[in-house]
Design goal:
Layout lengths: L21 E5 L9 H15 L3 E7 L14 E6 L1 E4 L2 E7 L3 H10 L4 E4 L4 H12 L4 E4 L4 H4 L9 H12 L4 E4 L2 H9 L5 E3 L16 H6 L8 E5 L8 H14 L4 E5 L5 H7 L4 E4 L3 H9 L3 E4 L9 H7 L3 E5 L2 H6 L7 E3 L4 H13 L1 H15 L4 H18 L17
Parallel strand pairs: 1-2, 1-6, 2-3, 6-7, 7-8, 8-9, 10-11, 10-13, 11-12, 13-14, 14-15
Antiparallel strand pairs: 4-5
Helix pairs in contact: 1-15, 2-3, 8-13, 11-14
Length: 414
């Protein structure tokens, strides 16, 4: 591995030598919960298992009937207590479990701990791992510090940044999805950052899943176009700009139908302000893929994403995408070729580009075709390999403890 200073790590420089690992993955959310973190950590866990690693998945119990889904050879789930998150009661927040994790990892010692979320469960996992001198890597997946101003608690920005910096700087490496976010966090004093992008399931998110029946249920006649939004219905998503775009686009194309997929605290207000829109609620799996593919235009006005998984999903589904030059869109979209980009924060330019989509079906169609073409090859296999390299590097650089037997299953070919 090429040695770098504490400011950052280049994933391409990380070890490529394969060995089987015992990995403890700690996350406060996981499918079937529907959110960006759950959707992107699940392919990592599945990919690590497929690559021959033994994964212990530590997460909160999602409901009373929740039971571990174990693969005796490769995957073992550990379910701990959790509490509903305020304003998102369908999601759970993990409770501190330092003692329970410490006892478990003392008996069955993982090679490396991968902490996905920075909540109470993640913090206690970090403490337990450090006490046992286990190597730890982490993910930066949610811009909590950027959300504060949207909920009237902007004064919390500095304390949140300080907590996140303290958390992540105690780990061997923090994976971030974009170079832009890496630079932002470096300016805040975060160390040992590695850029590991996100993948997209191009077999699931595919234009072939377009459904005429679904479009009819939205009130669409042949020839009508659908302006689609997918994501949380929440203040930090900048949905005021979405409504403004729709109003001006509908003046150009009166048959344009607005469909919003998702749920959240802003739903009632949005329904009151835009009663003609279709609110499809939360969707997942094959149904979500059909909703994407059944749209035509995708407008995503958020500026608070760490990555924005909906952008590659919409591109892979063959939609004409408009977004700010930020997060995933900045990495994946070439303005005017496979989508449209507006300068970050420039809402006038954003609306102007939305009007171009409304006024030119030919342009939108060309962008949609190129969107699908450019997303082929952005599957999860390459991303999982990069995560694997980060885990191997953390283990290689960690001061080893005397060997002791463990009961975590290891692959038979090791």
């Amino acid at each position: 591995m090429t040695q770098r200073d504490d400011a950052g790590i280049t994933v391409d420089d990380l070890p490529t030598v394969r060995r089987s690992l015992r990995v403890a993955v700690v996350t406060e959310t996981y499918p079937p919960e529907v959110n960006g973190v759950a959707a992107t950590i699940a392919p990592i866990v599945e990919g690590l298992v497929q690559r021959g690693h033994a994964v212990q998945l530590v997460r909160p119990r999602q409901h009373a009937g929740d039971r571990p889904d174990d693969d005796a050879q490769r995957l073992h789930e550990v379910l701990l207590r959790g509490l509903p998150i305020p304003r998102y009661p369908h999601l759970k927040m993990g409770l501190p479990a330092r003692r329970a994790l410490g006892e478990r990892w003392s008996r069955q010692r993982p090679d490396v701990v991968h902490i996905v979320t920075e909540g109470p469960l993640g913090w206690s996992a970090l403490q337990a791992a450090q006490r046992l001198r286990l190597p730890v890597v982490s993910d930066f997946r949610t811009n909590f510090h950027a959300y504060s101003r949207h909920y009237g608690v902007g004064w919390l920005h500095k304390p949140i940044v300080a907590y996140l910096r303290k958390f992540h700087n105690r780990t061997a490496c923090t994976m971030v999805p974009t170079e832009a976010l890496k630079r932002e966090l470096e300016a805040y004093g975060f160390q040992r950052l590695a850029v590991v992008a996100r993948g997209v399931d191009t077999r699931r998110f595919d234009p072939s899943r377009r459904s005429d029946a679904l479009r009819r249920s939205w009130g669409c006649a042949p020839g009508d176009r659908v302006l689609l939004y997918v994501g949380r219905l929440a203040p930090e998503k900048n949905l005021e700009l979405l409504l403004r775009c729709h109003a001006q686009m509908a003046a150009v194309d009166p048959r344009l139908r607005l469909v919003l997929v998702g749920d959240g605290p802003s739903r009632a207000d949005l329904q009151a302000r835009c009663p003609q829109a279709v609110f499809a609620g939360t969707q997942s799996g094959e149904a979500l893929a059909a909703h994407y593919a059944s749209g035509d235009l995708f407008v995503f006005p958020s500026l608070t994403e760490t990555y924005g998984n909906v952008t590659p999903e919409a591109l892979a589904s063959g939609l004409a995408v408009l977004a700010f030059d930020h997060a995933a869109a900045a990495q994946l979209i070439r303005d005017g070729d496979n989508g449209l980009l507006a300068p970050a924060g420039d809402e006038v330019a954003f609306v102007q580009r939305a009007l171009r989509l409304a006024a030119s079906p030919a342009l939108a169609g060309a962008l949609a075709r190129r969107a699908r073409e450019t997303m082929v090859g952005h599957g999860w296999e390459r991303i999982v390999a990069q995560v694997e390299s980060v885990l191997l590097a953390a283990l290689a650089q960690h001061e080893p403890l005397p060997w002791r037997p463990v009961r975590v299953p290891v692959p038979s070919d090791v």
